[in-house]
User: Fold these one by one.
Assistant:
Number 1:
Amino acid sequence: MRTLTFCIAGLLLACISSTSYSQPDPQSRFQEGVSASRAGDHRRALAHFRAARQAGLDTPALHYNLGVSYYRTGNLDAASRSFNEARRSRELAALAHYNLGLIALDQGRSTAAAQQFREAERLARTDQVRGLARIQLGRLPTVPTRGHAWLALDVGYDSNVALAPESVAGREDDAFHADALLWGEYRLTAGTAPDIRLQGSLNARDYPEVADADLLYLQLGPVWHRSTAGWRYVHSINLNHLSLGGDGVERQLQIGTEAVRPVRGLGELQARLRLSRTGGGTGFGYLDGYSHDLRLGLRDRSATMPWFLRYDLIYDDREDLRTATTFQSVSPLRQGVTAGITPALNHRTRMELTVGYRVSRFMDADEPGDGTSTRRLDRRMLLGAGLLHSLDANWTGTLRLQWAENRSNRAPFDYDRLQISAGVERGF
């Protein structure tokens, strides 16, 4: 029965393939592959699809059809890689997850299969695909877990750990580091009940030679996913904890909501609002207060060259750092714009290119104790570049570089920083 439903999903490819390409020869080979696939000759179809890819065609429709042909010719690892590429497309995401679920079943991984079928059901744009996913889920009455996870590990170099200005005499703030990022969620409800999940993350950075700079960030809380009238919503309540060098710096209660809606011709519109109450740790009482942020953005992850553009507004109102003779504001109003693209170099390798600019105006004037008073104003430029290379159906290798330049009207806060890292990441 799985073969039959796979064929049904595979036949949908004819309705999804792109209608116009700038290079007619790759498109011709692609169409020949579609015709061969319809006729059931999947080895010939695979040859045509691979020829189209080698000739420069790199679209979600091609990756999806490659996945079908690889699956039907018994190459499950290659099929997984192709479907993972295809799921970046909104139009193909549900079908790609559905077929990844079938591959997981063939490999005896029922838990992974259930996760893929749930994603297919959630993202389905037609009743037919939604129904196929539900049929498969119905055949898995007992699933040991309803969770997802993401793991990233890397090592790198940081040229300015303390964000110190170049004017500091004898500055030696560069150091190597190791990073670990773990994110996970578990659905607490089942069936047609509201989609309530428990979500958490851990982000740790260890500087072997600068222990005081070690960072640990923890987040945990329930989230509620729901959809209505074309919008997808995520409502959340989180408890956050930040420590530096083993000392607790911040504890935070955060309430947030995010809304995403497709926009014809522009990808997706994203809006997010988070409200936070913060308490400083021992010795960090000046961080007590509030921190709120708003994000508005557009993104298109299914475009030939995926892109995003976002605006961030961050408002902090803290107790600030006071002594008998000095005062320093730690309550900025930050506004920033960030843009990025993710062009594909080939079917296994992508680039990340980002640029960002942020202005931070602090609420009150700093008084360093020398009789002067200056309201701090920072301008930060951020540039990033990266390479992501698919190592197999699960793991991705990463190489990233980020450069930041902060210019302030208060000299102690001028700095440059270069960070380089290499690692691996995967989803579960």
Note: Residues 24-38 form the longest helix (15 residues).
Number 2:
Amino acid sequence: MNPQEIGLIDSRNESLWNDLNAINSIVVKTSTDTHYSCYSENQSSTIFVPVKNVNINSFTHELLHILIREKEIFFGSSFRLLIESNPVLSNLISDELLEHFGNCMDHIKMLPIYLELGFDEKEFIEDYNVNKFTKSEVNQLKDNFKLGNVHSKNATDFFIGKYISVKADANKNIDYSEVLNELENLDSELFQLLELCFGRWKKMPLESKSLLDDDYRTISLEFYQGLSDWAENKIFI
């Protein structure tokens, strides 16, 4: 499939497409799925385009995932390897959360580039208008997070997932300040670990300019170590 011929490339993303193809072989294929997706291995990538949804915004979103990879930034896979090496944390943090967390971290870096290219933030992601952490979900979390000295594995997983969903949300018209305060009140130590990770990631340049700059390995390692210390001596069911 030629993306130019079907309207997936215009003046906004043409340079991005050309630059990526200069160092990465990108194949575009149709898919019966309803969502765009991308698979990369070595210097090859495949973008899957839903047959009934030719959308330049979603296509550019996938190109930006490839761009993050070409910058050799692999937070998601680095964090996953660390978690899987730890018997406590690998039992606590689900595969779904690992995938979600890494994807959201990519989105945090991708969105500013997407906007600089001239695209509309409302089209960055399909669930733009969806509230990522509702009051009812807050109440559900508060009811299940901890009973006495026992923490819920599922609720802890939910806590981390909801935090990063909020921080990665492209819709800045949704006010999450109250629900974030609820998270901090529920477990300030875990909340601060997430805040530190997010803050460092947000400031990390895509291309390091100084030895003093954070890199994804340092951020993922220190976040992992913080989670390990937080989970130590706690009981999870």
Note: The chain is about 55% helix and 10% strand.
